[in-house]
Model the fold of this input.
Amino acid sequence: MMARRAAALLGRCALALLLAAPLAALAQNAGTAPAAKTAPLRFGILPLGGAFESRNDWEPLLADLSRAIGRPVSVLSVTSYEALEQAIQRDQVDMAFLSGKMALDAVTQRRMNVVAQVTRHDGLPGYRALLLTRKTGKRNTLKDLLAGPEHWRLARGENRSVSGFIVPQLQLFLPNHIAMETRFASEVVGTHQATALAVANGEADVATNNTADFERFKLQFPAEAERLQVIWESELIPHAQLVVRREYSPEFQKKVQAFLVDYARSKGPRGDAERAVLKSLHDLAGFVAADNSSLLPAAKLAYQLARQSAMTSQWVNEAARQARLQRIENAYAEQVAVLRNGAP
Done:
C-alpha cells in the first residue's frame, strides 16, 4: 500500500511540474505585468479532482473566453491548494477559480478582485460540507465518531479547504472538543475525490467531502460511491468565486465578467454546447456578477474558526488568550472594511 501511495505521489508531482512548466517559461519571458495585450491570461484552477482532469474540464470554457477577450489563455492546474496559493503569491496567476479562504486571501492580500460567482442547478446559494463513512463496518456512525475519534482513520482536505477542513472543524469537531489535526489515529490529506476513494477502499474510516463533489464522485465511481454514506452535513457554504488581478483595467475586468455572466444563457446550438461544458465542469449552472463583498461570508467563517481555536487552545495565562482574541477581532474588522469598501 505504501509503495502504491509513493508511486501515486511521485506521479502527481511529476504531472504538476509538467503542467506548471509552460507557465514558468511564460513568466520568465513576459514578466508578471499584464499590460501586453498579446500576453496570455494565466488561469489557475482549484484542485477539485485530479490536476489533468481539472485542466481538461476547464479548457473548453477558457477557449471561449480567449476568443471573447481577444487574447490567449493559459492554464495552471495543480495538485494542491498550497501549490496554487504559491503561484498566486509569485504573481504567476492572473485569474483564478477559488473558494473560501483562498479567494479571501487573494482579494485582501494578493491584489485580486472578485468578478463572478458560480451557480448550480439546485438554485441554492451554496453547498454543504459532508462526512462520509462506509455503510458497513464497526465505524460508521456519527455518535461513535464523536465518542472516540482516536480510533478512526481520517481522510480530509487541506487546511485551506473550506468544506474539506475549515467548516467541519468549525461546525462539528471543535464544538465537540476535537481538533482534526491531532485527535485521529491517522490521516490522509488530499482532494475530495481522493478522500472519498480512501474510505471506499478501506484506507480510511471517515472522509470530509461536499455535496457538489460527492455528486460528481457518484457519476465517476459508481461502485465505490455505493459503499459510502453521509453521516453529517454542514450549513450552507457560499459558492466559489472567480477573481482577476487588479492590475488589469476595470474595462478588461468588466469584459471578463460579461463573458462569464452571459455564458450558457443563449438559446440554440451555441447555448446548448456551453451548457454541456458547464455540465461537465462540476455540474455548474452558470455565473452571476459578483464583487468583493461576496466574500463576507468566507471572512466570517475564517474569523469564527480562528476565534473557536483560540478559545479551545491551551494558553500560558488568560492575558495571552485575550491578546490573541483581540488580534483576531482586529484582523476581521480590517477584512470586512476591505471587502465592503474596495481595494486596500
